C-alpha cells in the first residue's frame, strides 16, 4: 500500500492523504519529498517501509460470498470443462472456495492457495457440506503467493477476482508470474482476471443484503483512481444490523494496481506466456475488436480454445467490491477482463 512507516521514529505517511501538518498536498509520492518529512529524524535512506496489504478477515471474509455472488463461476467451469478431469487446477487466491468448490462438483480436482486463514475456514466448511462424496478433490493451503512453492506442476492455473492487482509494484507482479510459470506444465493454460474500476477520479458503491433472522449487512465502498500513479484504492465499511439496530462494524482499506488488459497481456508475454485470448466480462464473443488491435492474439481457426461459449442464460451477478450501484452519474461501469495464455519455453 502507499502507506509507509519510518522504522526509526514511527512516522506514518499516507501518499493518498498527504501530510497537512508538514504542508504536503494530497497525492504526493514519498519519493517526491525532500529529507524533512519525518518530524524527528527526516527522510533518509530506506527508512520508510510499505505497509503490507490487508488480509481478508473478519466481516470481509465472513460476508464475501454475499456480494461476490456467482461472478465468473460459469465462465471458469466452461473454461476448464474441456480439460482432463484427472488433471488438477491451481487456483491462486482461492478465498472462500467460491469457484473451486463448483469446479470440484464437476469432478475437476483443485489445489487452492490463499493468505487468509479466515477465508480458508469458510472454504473448508463449504467443502465439507458440498463435497461429501468427493472430499479429496479440493486441497486448500494457507500460503502467500509470493512464497509459492508446491513442488508440483499443473495443466491449468487461474487467478480470478483481480488477485494479481493486489500487488502494486511491477517487480512483485513479475516475481509472482515467474513462480507461476514454474508451476505450469508445458503448454498449460493460465487465466488472469483484471478488474478496471469506474472511469472516475472518485466513486462510491453501496451494497445491501438481507439475511435470515432479521439481519442485514451493509457495505459502503468509497474509492479513488490515480491515473498518474496507475493505482486505485477503496475503503470498504461493513456494518451488521439485527432488527434494524447496528451490532458490528468493520473497515478495511485496499490498494490495487490499475492494469489495462493490453498491459497485462504484455506482462504475461514478457514472462514466457503466449496470450491466446482476452475475454471481456466473461463473454468470449466480445473480444474480436481486441484481436484486431493486438496482433499477438491471433489464434488457429481450428484451435480448441474457440470451442466453448459462455452460457448467457446462467445467472452470474456479483463481484466484490463492485457489485453494488455506482453513485457517480458519469462513471463508466466496472469492466472485468480475463487474459488467457499458454506457457512457452
Structural write-up:
- With about 350 residues, the protein is an alpha/beta fold.
- The chain has three domains: about 1-50, Rubrerythrin, domain 2, CATH 2.20.28; about 60-195 and about 260-345, Vaccinia Virus protein VP39 (Rossmann fold, 3-Layer(aba) Sandwich), CATH 3.40.50.150; about 210-255, no CATH class.
- It is about 20% helix and about 30% strand.
- It is built from eight helices and 15 strands.
- It has helices at about 60, 65-70, 75-80, 100-105, 115-130, 170-180, 260-270, 290-295, and strands at about 5, 10-15, 50, 90, 110-115, 140, 155-160, 185-195, 200-210, 215-225, 230-240, 245-255, 275-280, 325, 335-345.
- A seven-stranded mixed β-sheet has the order 6-5-4-7-8-15-13, sandwiched between helices. Strands 12-11-10-9-14 form a five-stranded antiparallel β-sheet.
- The radius of gyration is 21 Å and the shape is globular.
- The model is unreliable at about 285-315 (pLDDT under 50).
Per CATH, the superfamily of the largest domain is: Vaccinia Virus protein VP39
Quote the beta fraction: 25-35%
Strand order of the largest sheet: 6-5-4-7-8-15-13
Beta strands, count = 15
Outline the fold blueprint:
Elements: E1 3-6, E2 12-14, E3 48-50, H1 58-62, H2 64-68, H3 73-81, E4 89-92, H4 100-105, E5 110-114, H5 117-130, E6 138-142, E7 154-159, H6 170-182, E8 184-196, E9 202-211, E10 215-226, E11 231-242, E12 245-257, H7 261-270, E13 273-280, H8 288-293, E14 325-326, E15 335-343
Parallel strand pairs: 4-5, 4-7, 5-6, 7-8
Antiparallel strand pairs: 1-2, 1-3, 8-15, 9-10, 9-14, 10-11, 11-12, 13-15
